[in-house]
What does this fold into?
Amino acid sequence: MHHRLKDRLIRLETSRSLMLSGERPFMGGTNLMVLLVAGHLGGMTAHEAVGEAYGRALGYAGGFELRSVLSLEHGSPAGEGRDRRHAEAVARLLTLKGVSAEEGGGPVCDALRALYDDLPEHVRQHPFGREVGTSLNEVMDMFL
It folds into this structure.
């Protein structure tokens, strides 16, 4: 089977099974990274959408540009550029705590928890921030 067709089939089957089960996929790790990037690197203000600050941290002009690149496939050149920007932002985040992603496990987990704790209160109290906070322990368990 053609590689791209196989990928699409897997995504379709996954989304169909999630629709039938009524469960949403767990996005805790991704959500944590988005919140940390928005809060620490994007300078999220008290009355701003997380996406605006996240997009700014990745170097996009605004939320509209970010939304357009988020809809791109991972294998496309623009999708790869978006993924590269995200990976670079996560590396910059971890550098704030003197850690690199290659260290993995405990050091990365400790750095992420410290970065969450260091977020401004308005970021943690944002509805998205509160959602991330409720899944924080589950996300930390994934890194250990």
In short: The two ends are 36 Å apart (CA to CA). Residues 27-143 form one domain. The first helix runs from residue 3 to 21. Residues 6 and 12 are 10 Å apart (CA to CA).
